């Protein structure tokens, strides 16, 4: 078998267009991406310039959708909410991830178990996690309220999903539980790759633990930190399942994210054109913010 | 003769909502057993995604041959040429007049039939007889006016120990079209039945506001269980099933579930209005339609004829505890099974429904104005303001945003 | 107590508390799955199932079209996605890493940037694209979509892995007469095995846990994978949720992921790390 291949490829002159082989190799990936990514993307842009109901006639309306979407209460609120949620979750995931990473960095007994425990939620789906959480915070059958009662933290625990802030808190708790392990791993690698000599040298120079952390550890963690921040930023901006399944966007649309608003617009109100416009808007924002973030963090590395 | 091959049955596709799982397969099996020329293949589609999937299939040219459609969705699809006009066929049915009127009104568009009633759900008020007794109320005299509901609820809540007088799934849009709109109807609101144009929805009429104010008063009294506000329907019947709720609205499904699975001693009564003798009910359920893109119209019609006929309505609907759309069967065969079924049959006769092109966007969408109205008007402090705000949103939707 | 000992004690206590907090939701899940619905319905909720039962798992056959149907769907999608993603990204990563062609850096960055595009809104036009290919409402079509979503990350990881192979190894192998596919098969693949496992695991987990795409792109309940089938248990009908049944379903859904995770832990972690710290 391999001789056939080597006869086919091996006998080719050295100067056989390496380029051609390279291109051939990436054709499958390119084909997938072109068909199932680029085409829908272009189509979506095209749809955003039309009044495009699911059933019925489509009509060209230029950029009107882009104007109309800002008159939509739910959408406008979702922009604010998604921003607030992202602003909360990004630093939270970083801090918790870093904390966990530092806890599991040492070589003690049982640290491996800890690492597994902290990382396990990452591999289960967001949907199953949400189903557990709905159950957990249910006022009638959920154990969370029971724990609060039994530990005497409060005798009348709140109905979590009935209050906008508490519902948000519940969702954030779920996402942190599910995702912190990922950041922990990224940051752990970073921590482990800091050479011992460097930390030793700093300590010999008389640095306190705080100074050590600020001046030595953090700068050397720039890479993993940047990566963690980028992932959580994208995840925050695109948040959907955690709210769709846990709070259904309520109470009263207070926890509706941008993607959820897009979903409602396209699939409950059948206004595909408007949904497409909202999507393009979200994409542009995301690309701008991510690029900006990468630029800022990349630049800083240059002088580390 | 030996060698004469039996032709394979023709397969036709039938879509039903997952809320019909209890009877859909049995019904389909029943039909397939009556003849061997046509075999109906049942596909269950999740209810919350049904309009989207049905519409997407129509847009993509892959409609099923026959489908069961939530009755409030019919106007939208009929107006969009997604459904076949079956007026002439419908007129051949001898029992056309026995169908529940609310269903018929939604099955027609511009005076033509685009659907036929299929299964019904009528809303009634459940009440826990044991709790009534414990609170010093007569278990055979359920409330007949709003004031009585209010007073009874207060007495029951006073029993304490996690017991509350009233319950409903406060965060569920569709559920409450079913159990809250009756109060608006009982007050005389014609809002939701499209008195004028089919797009007429009027959530802030005086009647509607009075109903919302009444429900708000129950909340102010503390008679509504605290977990009602966040319940998206997950605990719709299980709350009442714990025996700690005095009264709540519900339909046939709940009656069956409570009888079979829970040990609650309960009765049913028509949902009262502001004064004695006024009642309200919402007629929900499904219609059965032939999509315009159906590949097997004749066979689909034959199935529809059978499904709305006596045999099917009696043995595959009424016998399974579900309210038949045929009022003649409902008020005799079905009502005879249990006094609680009789209440359901009576409710069906006076039931109203919501006829609008925008049912999905207004009433079933969790980010729509109906749910927002309930959350604000009932759990807030100013029902009138909430109603005005909701009505404004309705107008925005109706006027194309 | 000396500072060092106190520090260690504090760390241990904090670790312990965090471990309990992290395990708690899993515990709640498991204890619910083994409770009878009757025990579940009677508040207050109990910590330990008094009525230990396996009936919920038996009742899973009533969930949707029967739990095995949905497990089968999820497994099929997982298989398609894993096989497809590994093959395509392996070829692509190899091409980007060890061959030179014009525009390769730009093309690579473009492919990566797909990570920044939310796929949810793309679902509607995707529906149309699938229809044009006669793949609407099919698990195979959905699998192709999953593969596409995986590609940016998978290409990234595979390219890095191939880049890591020192030129000397390639040269030595070439001297020995290997080139082209032999090179790939005999030489490279063993060296990038961790990356392959990483890509495969990520592909499997994504496909297995995906919720929105199958909700939108599949209509027939009998084709639904587990996460969507479970959702019907929450919103369908008007009878309220059977919590213990639902949690039993969630447990079944989670189990393969957790098992695979435990088996392949070191690959998963190291592959992720290798991809992250380089590149």
List the helices and strands and how they pair.
The complex is a heterotrimer of chains A (304), B (401) and C (279).
Chain A (H helix, E strand, L loop, with lengths): L1 H9 L7 H31 L1 E2 L7 E2 L3 H5 L4 H31 L7 H13 L2 H11 L6 H8 L13 H29 L3 H9 L4 H12 L1 H16 L3 H6 L11 H10 L4 H31 L2
Antiparallel strand pairs in A: 1-2
Helix pairs in contact in A: 2-14, 4-8, 4-11, 4-13, 5-8, 6-8, 8-11, 9-10, 11-14, 13-14
Chain B lengths: L9 E8 L3 H14 L3 E8 L4 H11 L5 E5 L3 H6 L7 H4 L10 H7 E2 L2 E2 L2 E7 L1 E5 H6 L11 H12 L6 E4 L5 H7 L1 H6 L19 H16 L16 H4 L3 E6 L1 H9 L5 E4 L1 E2 L6 E2 L2 E7 L7 H11 L2 H8 L5 E2 L2 H8 L4 H12 L8 H6 L4 H11 L3 H16 L3
Parallel strand pairs in B: 1-2, 1-3, 8-9
Antiparallel strand pairs in B: 3-13, 4-5, 6-13, 6-14, 7-9, 7-10, 11-12
Helix pairs in contact in B: 7-10, 10-18, 15-16, 18-19
Chain C lengths: L2 H31 L3 H5 L13 H5 L7 H32 L5 H10 L9 H10 L6 H25 L3 H9 L4 H30 L2 H6 L8 H10 L7 H35 L2
CATH class of the largest domain in chain A: Mainly Alpha
Radius of gyration of chain B: 21 Å
Instruction: Give the strand order, joined by hyphens, for the main sheet of chain B.
Output: 2-1-3-13-6-14
Count of individual beta strands of chain B: 14
Strand order of the largest sheet of chain A: 1-2
Q: Which geometry of chain A do the CA atoms define?
A: globular
Q: Could you describe the largest sheet of chain B, including whether it forms a barrel?
A: 6 strands, mixed
């Amino acid at each position: 078998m391999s001789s056939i291949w080597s006869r086919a490829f091996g006998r080719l002159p050295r100067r056989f267009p390496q380029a051609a082989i390279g291109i051939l190799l990436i054709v499958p990936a390119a084909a997938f991406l072109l068909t199932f990514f680029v085409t829908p993307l272009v189509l979506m842009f095209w749809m955003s310039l039309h009044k495009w109901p699911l059933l019925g006639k489509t009509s060209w309306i230029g950029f009107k959708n882009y104007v109309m979407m800002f008159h939509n209460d739910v959408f406008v609120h979702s922009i604010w909410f998604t921003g607030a949620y992202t602003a909360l979750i990004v630093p939270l995931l970083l801090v918790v991830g870093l904390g966990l990473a530092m806890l599991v960095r040492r070589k003690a007994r049982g640290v491996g178990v800890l690492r597994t425990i902290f990382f396990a939620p990452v591999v289960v789906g967001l949907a199953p996690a949400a189903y557990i959480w709905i159950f957990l915070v249910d006022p009638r059958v959920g154990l969370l309220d029971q724990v609060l009662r039994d530990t005497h933290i409060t005798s009348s625990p709140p109905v979590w999903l009935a209050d906008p802030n508490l519902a948000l808190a519940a969702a954030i708790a779920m996402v942190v539980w599910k995702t912190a392990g990922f950041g922990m791993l990224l940051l752990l690698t970073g921590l482990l790759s800091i050479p011992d000599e460097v930390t030793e040298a700093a300590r010999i120079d008389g640095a306190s633990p705080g100074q050590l952390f600020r001046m030595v550890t953090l700068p050397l963690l720039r890479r993993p930190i940047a990566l963690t921040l980028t992932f959580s930023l994208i995840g925050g901006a695109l948040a959907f399942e955690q709210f769709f399944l846990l709070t259904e966007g309520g109470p009263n649309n207070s926890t509706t994210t941008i993607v959820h608003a897009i979903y409602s617009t396209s699939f409950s109100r059948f206004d595909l054109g408007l949904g497409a416009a909202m999507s393009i808007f979200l994409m542009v924002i995301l690309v701008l913010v991510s690029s900006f973030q990468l630029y800022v963090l990349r630049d800083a590395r240059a002088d580390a | 003769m030996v060698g004469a091959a039996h032709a394979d049955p023709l397969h036709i596709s039938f879509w039903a909502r997952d809320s019909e799982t209890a009877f859909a397969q049995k019904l389909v099996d029943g039909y397939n057993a009556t003849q061997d020329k046509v075999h109906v293949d049942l596909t269950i589609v999740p209810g919350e995604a049904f309009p989207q999937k049905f519409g997407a299939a129509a847009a993509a040219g892959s409609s099923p041959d026959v489908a069961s459609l939530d009755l409030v969705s019919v106007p939208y699809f009929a107006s969009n040429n997604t459904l076949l006009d079956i007026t002439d066929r419908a007129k051949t049915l001898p029992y056309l007049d026995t169908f529940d009127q609310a269903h018929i009104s939604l099955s027609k568009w511009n005076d033509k039939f685009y659907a036929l009633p299929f299964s019904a759900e009528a809303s009634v008020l459940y009440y826990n007889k044991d709790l009534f007794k414990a609170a010093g109320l007569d278990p055979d005299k359920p409330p007949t006016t709003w004031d009585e509901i209010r007073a009874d609820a207060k007495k029951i809540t006073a029993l304490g120990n996690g017991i509350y007088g009233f319950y409903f799934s406060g965060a569920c849009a569709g559920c409450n079209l079913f159990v809250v709109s009756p109060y608006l109807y009982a007050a005389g609101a014609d809002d939701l039945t499209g008195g004028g144009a089919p797009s007429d929805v009027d959530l802030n009429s005086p009647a509607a506001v009075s109903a919302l104010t009444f429900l708000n008063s129950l909340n102010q009294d503390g008679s509504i269980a605290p977990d009602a506000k966040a319940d998206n329907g997950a605990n719709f019947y299980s709350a009442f099933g714990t025996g700690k709720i005095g009264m709540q609205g519900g339909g046939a499904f709940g009656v069956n579930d409570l009888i079979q699975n829970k040990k609650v001693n309960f009765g049913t009564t028509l949902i009262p209005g502001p004064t004695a003798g006024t009642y309200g009910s919402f007629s929900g359920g499904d219609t059965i339609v032939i999509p315009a893109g159906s590949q097997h119209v004749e066979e689909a019609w034959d199935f529809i004829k059978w499904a709305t006929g006596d045999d099917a309505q009696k043995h595959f609907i009424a016998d399974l505890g579900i309210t038949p759309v045929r009022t003649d069967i409902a008020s005799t065969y079905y009502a005879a099974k249990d006094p609680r079924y009789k209440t359901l049959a009576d409710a069906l006769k006076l039931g109203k429904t919501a006829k609008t092109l925008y049912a999905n966007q207004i009433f079933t969408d969790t980010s729509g104005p109906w749910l927002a109205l309930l959350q604000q008007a009932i759990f807030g402090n100013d029902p009138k303001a909430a109603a005005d705000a909701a009505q404004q949103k309705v107008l925005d939707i109706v006027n194309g945003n | 107590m000396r500072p060092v000992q106190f520090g260690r004690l504090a760390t241990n206590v904090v670790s312990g508390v965090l471990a309990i907090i992290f395990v708690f939701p899993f515990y709640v899940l498991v204890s619910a799955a083994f409770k009878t619905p009757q025990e579940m319905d009677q508040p207050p909720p109990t910590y330990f199932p008094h009525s230990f039962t396996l009936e919920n798992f038996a009742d899973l056959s009533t969930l949707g079209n029967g739990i095995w149907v949905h497990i089968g769907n999820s497994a099929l999608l997982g298989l398609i996605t894993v096989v497809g993603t590994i093959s395509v990204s392996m070829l692509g990563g190899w091409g980007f890493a060890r061959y030179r062609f014009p525009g390769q850096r730009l093309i690579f960055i473009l492919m990566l940037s797909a990570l920044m595009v939310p796929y949810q809104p793309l679902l509607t036009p995707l529906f149309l694209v699938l229809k044009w290919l006669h793949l609407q409402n099919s698990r195979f079509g959905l699998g192709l979509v999953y593969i596409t979503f995986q590609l940016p990350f998978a290409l990234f990881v595979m390219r890095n892995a191939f880049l890591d192979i020192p030129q000397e190894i390639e040269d030595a192998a070439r001297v020995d007469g290997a080139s082209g596919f032999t090179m790939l098969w005999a030489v490279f693949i063993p060296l990038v095995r961790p990356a392959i496992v990483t890509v495969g695991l990520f592909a499997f987990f994504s496909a297995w846990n995906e919720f929105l795409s199958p909700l939108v792109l599949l209509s027939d309940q009998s084709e639904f994978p587990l996460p969507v089938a479970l959702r019907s248990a929450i919103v369908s009908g008007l009878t309220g949720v059977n919590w213990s049944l639902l949690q039993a379903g969630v447990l079944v859904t989670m189990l393969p992921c957790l098992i695979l995770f435990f088996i392949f832990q070191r690959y998963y972690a190291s592959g992720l790390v290798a991809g992250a710290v380089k590149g």
